[in-house]
């Protein structure tokens, strides 16, 4: 059963993670997030109570 032999799959896993961490991730990290959280305090919106018909 070839799926029980970890030799080729482990190498593919290690190479893909090395590619991600050494090449792709440094190129993605410098981008500035467009959704910067605001520092102003948010006011909670009042939630009206529900009138349940069966009470």
From TrEMBL:
Compartment annotation: Mitochondrion membrane
Q: Which GO molecular function annotations are given, in alphabetical order?
A: proton transmembrane transporter activity
* Gene Ontology CC: mitochondrial membrane; proton-transporting ATP synthase complex
Q: What is its main location?
A: mitochondrion
Transmembrane stretches, start-end: 6-24
GO process annotations (BP): proton motive force-driven ATP synthesis
Q: Which InterPro entries match?
A: ATP8_metazoa (IPR001421), ATPase_protein_8 (IPR050635)
Which organism does this record belong to? Answer: Butastur liventer (rufous-winged buzzard)
Instruction: Give the lineage.
Output: Eukaryota, Metazoa, Chordata, Craniata, Vertebrata
Q: Which UniProt keywords apply?
A: ATP synthesis, CF(0), Hydrogen ion transport, Ion transport, Membrane, Mitochondrion, Transmembrane, Transmembrane helix, Transport
Is NADP given among the entry's keywords?
Answer: no
Q: Which residues form a coiled coil?
A: none
Q: Which family does it belong to?
A: Belongs to the ATPase protein 8 family.
- The identity of this protein, by name, is ATP synthase complex subunit 8
């Amino acid at each position: 059963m070839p799926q029980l032999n970890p030799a080729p799959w482990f190498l593919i896993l290690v190479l893909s993670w090395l590619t991600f961490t050494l090449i792709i991730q440094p190129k993605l990290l410098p981008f500035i997030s467009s959704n910067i959280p605001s520092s102003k305090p948010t006011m909670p919106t009042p939630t009206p109570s529900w009138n349940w018909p069966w009470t």
